[in-house]
Amino acid sequence: MSNARWNGGGPFPAGARFAFTVMDDTDVATVENVRPIYRLLESLGMRTTKTVWPVRCEEGSADFSLSETMDDPHYCDFVMDLHTRGFEMAFHGATMETSPRQRTERALERFCRAFGAPPRVHANHAYNRENLYWGSGRLDDRVLRLLYARVLGEASDGYLGHVPGSPYWWGDLCVAQIEYVRNLTFSEINLLRVNPSMPYRDPLRPYARWWFSASHAEDVSEFNRLLQPANQERLEAEGGVCIVATHFGKGFAPAGRPDPETERLLGLLARRSGWFAPVGEVLDWLRARRDTDALPAGEWRRMQWRWARDLLRRRLAALATA
């Protein structure tokens, strides 16, 4: 197509009217608390993306100690089986806490041995110091960088994965092995409303080949709100793209069964005319339909302010319910 951006309206592959997928970050995930939702997705004909931690965290973790990694044999068997069933495996850093370069190298090698190729998709994890372009380093707008650093206390110099010579440097490994890196997330089901130029390159952040955005849903409650029928209807009507960033380990399978509301909403979605493919496949398809890899300056400026607004609203809502 001749336009620099994909503006929706279909058709997507097989004549679908919209695209929907999920990137499930592996925080607090175990076989027990995520397997039911993957069995549900498979039964509905949906294939999504799951991040993994390839190696254990030898030093322990205050927040994620119950999470399983590929050093747990039953979890390794589970994710390898998911891979054979058509789910995409992605990288969430080496493990649940900050990793020096040597552990990141070992984790990428472990991933490649297990799945036969390096990860195509990556998302930074929490406050790990090897994160690439994280904290206020995600932003270019000077006002937002200042506010972000002061309000949240996260300056860009705390994250060093993209800084050559630091103990946490792995930018060269990322750009050599990984195709897509997740950046800003939004409280919006149709990402083409916010970032129609996705995926995009950023010359100021060269150690990620391509960046993409996602729809934010921290846990099962936020996921269910995002997938309300009215939002589903709009996503389809607009010919939109939704890549949900969530954590299936956070309440999606209480008592070993999928959350009933999640099951109902995914069932409704599956009956719509959607394309339900993994993240990498969706991004490949979008990328093939752009005639430039640039992100227009006005779009990037609006994205930063929209991201900040959505983040503030989520923080205020969390405080109100605390």
Question: In a few lines, what is going on in this structure?
Answer:
The protein has about 325 residues and is an alpha/beta fold. It has ten helices and eight strands.
Describe the structure.
The protein has a single domain (13-321), classed as Glycoside hydrolase/deacetylase (TIM Barrel). It is 37% helix and 12% strand. The chain contains ten helices and eight strands. The protein has helices at residues 31-43, 73-84, 101-115, 142-152, 171-177, 220-226, 229-237, 260-270, 279-288, 297-321; strands at 18-24, 49-52, 88-91, 121-122, 180-186, 210-216, 241-246, 274-275. Strands 1, 2, 3, 4, 5, 6, 7 and 8 form an eight-stranded parallel beta sheet that branches. The N and C termini lie far apart (48 Å). The relative contact order is 0.19. The model is unreliable at 1-6 (pLDDT under 50).
Principal-axis shape: globular
Number of domains: 1
CATH fold category name: TIM Barrel
Number of helices: 10
Mean pLDDT, nearest integer?
94
**Radius of gyration, whole Å:** 19 Å
CATH homologous superfamily assignment? Glycoside hydrolase/deacetylase
Distance between the termini: 48 Å
Write down the oligomeric state. Answer: single chain
Which sheet architecture does the biggest sheet show?
A: 8 strands, parallel
In total, the number of strands is: 8
CATH architecture: Alpha-Beta Barrel
Strand and helix order: EHEHEHEHHEEHHEHEHH
**Which regions are unreliable across 5 or more consecutive residues at pLDDT < 50?**
1-6
- Which class do the helix and strand fractions yield? alpha/beta
What fraction of the residues are assigned to beta strands by DSSP?
5-15%
Helicity range: 25-40%
> What is the C-level CATH assignment?
Alpha Beta
